[in-house]
Amino acid sequence: MSFLTTFLVNNLYSATAQVSRQEIRGVWMTSNDFNTLRDRTKVQNAVRQLRELNFNTIYPVVWNSGYVMYPSAVAKREGIQPFVLRGSDGHDILADLINQAHRQGLLVIPWFEFGFMAPQMSELALNHPDWFTQKRDGSQTSISAAGEVMWLNPFHPKVQEFITNLIVEIVTQYDVDGIQFDDHMSLPREFGYDKYTTALYTQETQNNPPSNPEDPAWMRWRADKITAFMVQLNQAVKARKPNAIFSVSPNYHDFAYKFQLQDWLAWLDKNIIDELIMQVYRSDLQSFVAKISRPEIQISQQKIPTAIGIMTGLRNNPVPIQQIKSQVRAAQERGLGVAFFYYESLWEYAPEPPDKRQAAFKTLFANPALRARVE
Question: Which 8-state DSSP code applies to residue 152?
Fold first, then answer.
């Protein structure tokens, strides 16, 4: 009995320690955080504070609205970016963040925000109109969280080559720990009626695309094409950095597939996702708990580190710390990590003073949970 008890306790401790090492405690750094990111001293203070509060991962934006946030030969070659975003003393913002974060033991996983979305007046849209897809009525835009946007055609080989080149550039040019794709590495179901895609669909199925964008076979064909591209993208990343974390931060699966053709459960099944952070931006705790209790979360937890994306506030919509605490606790009770959107709203643009917010995070993350560096 004594031997059995010792065996069980030791193995329980080992399993608990393993889970602890894998626990995601992250924060996204968005374009709204540029005033912090451009200043070396502010970055140093930010990562030191995050480390003191037992965070372990930073997700800095590197692609947004058709532009990159680092010096990019790929972007320059395509003529899409006539400027280079640099820090206050002319330094490389991403390189500085990575260097300072690694000194503090934090992982840095750059975030490819907005995926295939780009504004109508971006150089990308103006220089490469044939790279974009359209709805059946010929219109090319949709309304999103980023305003009115166009959508790159995820089925077009030139688009796939461009995106792949950007991602490969990031993982080879910088000492990153991985790369992350969000809910916009997808396509609204109304799109896909451009000449290239309709011809490809007809060639492969001997049928014209259905007039109904919700047709099950038409949706499945497009979703599978996006999945196939994500497999190729994973292979390209792993060929350069085999241990890089291929991270995905989608919406819950029913919504992601039904409205955005993003079948991330298929990505999980194909073993191309190394960590999952499902966005659950809701103020109602009951609704929040319902979403984080969905079957796909439990499936993900059995395979990879899994976390929940929690809203900590927007400039025009601050979130009270009590809401944040209740959601983090609900996630922790289910063995889930968390990532917060976004850095500036952790304790700035908040209803409570910064010291009170920071004390709350210290309570939520009472013990360190460092993640192993990717080599």
Answer: B
Greatest Cα pair distance, the chain, in angstroms, is: 74
Token pair of 372, please? Answer: 């192993």
How far is the CA of 163 from the CAs of 51, 82, 97, 313, in angstroms? 32, 18, 23, 30
Pair of tokens at residue 187: 């396509």
Q: Which residues contact 231 (CB under 8 A, 6 or more apart)?
A: 267, 270, 272
- Which tokens belong to 263? 């079948």
Residue 56 near residue 340 (C-beta atoms within 8 A): no
Provide the token pair at 329: 């606790």
Residue 373: per-residue pLDDT: 83
Tokens describing residue 270 = 């194909």
Rounded-to-integer distance, Cα 157 and Cα 134, Å: 16
Contact partners, residue 205, CB within 8 Å, separation at least 6: 217, 221
Cis bond leading into 193, ω under 30°? no
Question: Taking the CB of residue 197, how many other CB atoms lie within 10 A of it?
Answer: 22
- Which segments of the chain have a pLDDT < 50? 1-21
DSSP 63-82: EETTEESS--HHHHHTT--S
- In 3D space, the residue among 338, 333, 273 whose CA is nearest the CA of residue 304 turns out to be 273
Rounded Cα distance, 229 and 237, in Å: 12
Superfamily of segment(s) 21-364:
Glycosidases (3.20.20.80)
Q: Rounded distance, CA 301 to CA 314, Å?
A: 29
Q: Where are the domains of the chain?
A: 21-364
- CB-based contacts of 194, cutoff 8 Å, min separation 6: 132, 133, 134, 153
276: which residues sit within 8 A by CB, 6+ positions away?
247, 248, 249, 250, 264, 268, 300, 304, 305, 306, 307
Q: In this structure, how many other beta carbons lie within 10 angstroms of the beta carbon of residue 67?
A: 20
Q: What is the pLDDT of residues 293-341, one digit of tens each?
A: 999 999 999 999 999 999 999 989 999 999 999 999 999 999 999 999 9
Q: What is the dihedral of CA 142, 124, 71, 48, to 10 degrees?
A: 0
In the DSSP assignment, the letter for residue 282 is -
